[in-house]
Design a protein that fits this description.
By secondary structure, this protein is mostly helical. The protein is built from 17 helices and no strands.
């Protein structure tokens, strides 16, 4: 049986792997992970050294105002400040975001303080004015003001760098998720006779239903913005289990016989198995794969318990699957196939309404009725050609 399933899609899978590799490379190149890590470490190290040298400078000023060592420290601090500014400017080319602009501003202020400090020190040493000397030796003098300023700048720079590191990790996680989804979507598409527009339509149907349910006050705690976004991303994977269905069944133009239908129904549990492996591999316990797993395994369950694969009923069926069920059925009804003509929008509405509370969650059907015009618009806009 296994041998029968795969030969016909061998070239599709090979092509899919090439596309995934190109897609993954592009993602990594766009975000420039590795290119920002070294500059961030250099900037953090230089900022720490600048703060330490500035502190030493103030100590030398306090105990020996004419020390040559303070001028050596001033020169080193100035050079490190210029170096830091150059690193940040280089970083802004790879990562043009507001946090880098903040870092650039902070490093610029740091450099300005170093220059101002050198100018004032030179002026105090060469000036004969008693007022300036008196100010310089006050208990709370300008050196303490500079130390405070250096401290604030250093803490702000470190905080910004930490945020950039966190953002980098978040971007890597997002890129990994996108790669994973691209791989799974390509796998699902390689063994599905549906069109690309089917994926777009069902994604939009699911999102519209979820937003309408929340607007109507239903399942508000389960339909946050984040969860709706996950449902949108997970929707294309609802039939990924078809990867394990033999070609003579999957691609059969006519109606399936009883034996073939039993095999076809296993695509739900096959999809669960595929996505469970991905969930474990990527530790995605509360993300898009977790939602896709519930959708793949439950979108053929029915509200009255007459569905498959487990005969779940009512609220035991995951909400994501109940939403997907309506979206998928509507698209299947109105879409034309080689073995059937597409139903009219009105016929599809009546069919779904007739099974409200039996096949479908009554609340989801309410949301569907409220969104019927949007469904029709989506179906027309992304119609198969």
């Amino acid at each position: 049986m296994v041998e029968d399933r795969w030969p016909s899609c061998r070239y599709s899978v090979i092509g899919m792997r090439k596309n995934i590799s190109l897609s993954a490379s592009k993602l990594i190149q766009d975000i420039n992970f590795q290119k920002i890590l070294l500059p961030l470490r250099v900037i953090a190290g230089l900022s720490a050294l600048i703060f330490a040298f500035n502190f030493c400078y103030e100590v030398f000023v306090s105990y020996n105002p004419s020390s040559y060592q303070k001028w050596a420290i001033s020169l080193i601090t100035f050079v490190m400040s210029i170096w830091t500014l150059i690193e940040v400017r280089g970083l802004s080319r790879w990562l043009p975001i507001s946090l880098v602009d903040v870092l650039l501003y902070l490093v610029g202020v740091q450099l300005a303080l170093v220059i101002l400090r050198i100018v004032l020190a030179f002026f105090f040493e060469t000036s004969d004015g008693q007022d300036w000397r008196l100010f310089a030796h006050m208990e709370i003098g300008w050196r303490w003001i500079f130390l405070l300023a250096y401290s604030v700048i250093f803490i702000s720079v470190v905080d910004t760098i930490i945020r950039l590191f966190s953002l980098n990790e978040k971007n890597k996680a997002v890129a990994l998720e996108e790669q994973m989804l691209a791989s799974l979507n390509a796998l699902a598409k390689a063994r599905d006779n549906e069109t690309g527009n089917h994926i777009i339509r069902t994604q939009l149907y699911v999102k519209n239903l979820a937003l309408r349910l929340r607007k109507m006050g239903y399942y508000e705690g389960e339909l946050t913005d984040r969860i709706i976004d996950l449902l949108f991303k997970a929707a294309p994977l609802h039939d990924i289990g078809k990867v394990g269905i033999p070609d003579h069944i999957l691609l059969k133009p006519g109606r399936l016989n009883d034996e073939e239908w039993e095999i076809m129904k296993t695509h739900t549990t096959i999809g669960e198995a595929v996505l469970s492996s991905a969930e474990i591999e990527f530790k995605d316990e509360d993300g898009v794969i977790a939602k896709a797993l519930k959708i793949a395994g439950g979108h053929h369950e029915k509200w009255d318990g007459s569905g498959y694969p487990r005969g779940l009923s009512g609220a035991d069926i995951p909400l994501a699957a109940r939403i997907m069920s309506v979206a998928d059925i509507y698209d299947a009804l109105v879409s034309e196939r080689v073995y059937k003509k597409g139903w009219t929008h009105r016929e599809a509405i009546q069919e779904i309404i007739s099974h409200q509370g039996t096949y479908f969650d009554p609340r989801v059907v309410e949301a569907f009725i409220a969104e019927q015009d949007n469904f029709q618009e989506i179906a027309e806009q992304y119609k198969d050609v």
